[in-house]
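re: ur question from yesterday

yeah so i grabbed the chain u mentioned. its 296 aa long if i counted rite. heres the sequnce exactly as i have it in my notes:
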Amino acid sequence: MSTLPKVAWIGLGIMGSPMSENLVKAGYDVTGHTLERDKLDRLAAAGGTAAASVAEAVRDADVIVTMVPASPQVEAVAYGPDGILENARRGALLIDMSSITPQTSVDLAAAAKDKGIRVLDAPVSGGEAGATEAVLSIMVGGDQADFDEAKPLFEALGKTIVRCGPHGSGQTVKAANQLIVAVNIQACAEAVVFLEKSGVDLAAALDVLGGGLAGSTVLARKKDNFLNRDFRPGFRIDLHHKDMGIVTDAARTVGAVLPVGAVVAQLVAGLRAQGDGGLDHSALLRAVERLSGAQV
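ran it thru and got these structure tokens back, copy pasting raw so excuse formatting
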């Protein structure tokens, strides 16, 4: 019998599916729930167990992980008679790895405490590739003792794992991460259009730029997307739009001015309004191309 904690995993999307499967590979007993039957079948095929409801999934779990799109979905699975807080056992550890508002995380931790359930907010960065390869960056908010307990589980999912402070801190750092990523993708997209219109060998240019100060994880991860105009979603524009709303709202609350971030947030919103919300966020290239006169 495994001595590892029993895990309930709620949310098996682009990120959640490979992450839960990595826990199975690491020897964890994982029971998952999501709304899509094919995702439940995928988890079962990987060695996990499918549950028909949130309540069923969490009832016997030592650790509960949620990985859903936004604050409303976290609240939907956490609260109510069929939710996590009403059905998980006292002493369980709830780890929310979704990207949501810091205040939602703070409120969830307070509500869970009344039920005897501990909470960490632990959003991630690295996209689908990072989730699949188990090299995610995981930024955590919550109590040190709970972080220490969860560390082995995090190590099955990522490489850079840091407690950033009390409840909500992980989400604040994730918001900053999404700001940096969006601005970086926008800068890369503008460079790609500039290079192509100048008649430069784009592949060669991106190779040499990647080796200098302009190099970044974003450029390395998204270079092929730019070269091949491959915008299959690793991280959808819809989700980055949500995240830019989180960071601009949080910045307003604390009095931080984000002039470049505000512009990029509007560019992301514009791309979404043009029907590209389901594409990968590297599709910001399409917005730059349209502004530059291309028909895309």
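noticed a couple things. The mean pLDDT is 97. also The longest strand covers residues 158-165.
anyway ttyl
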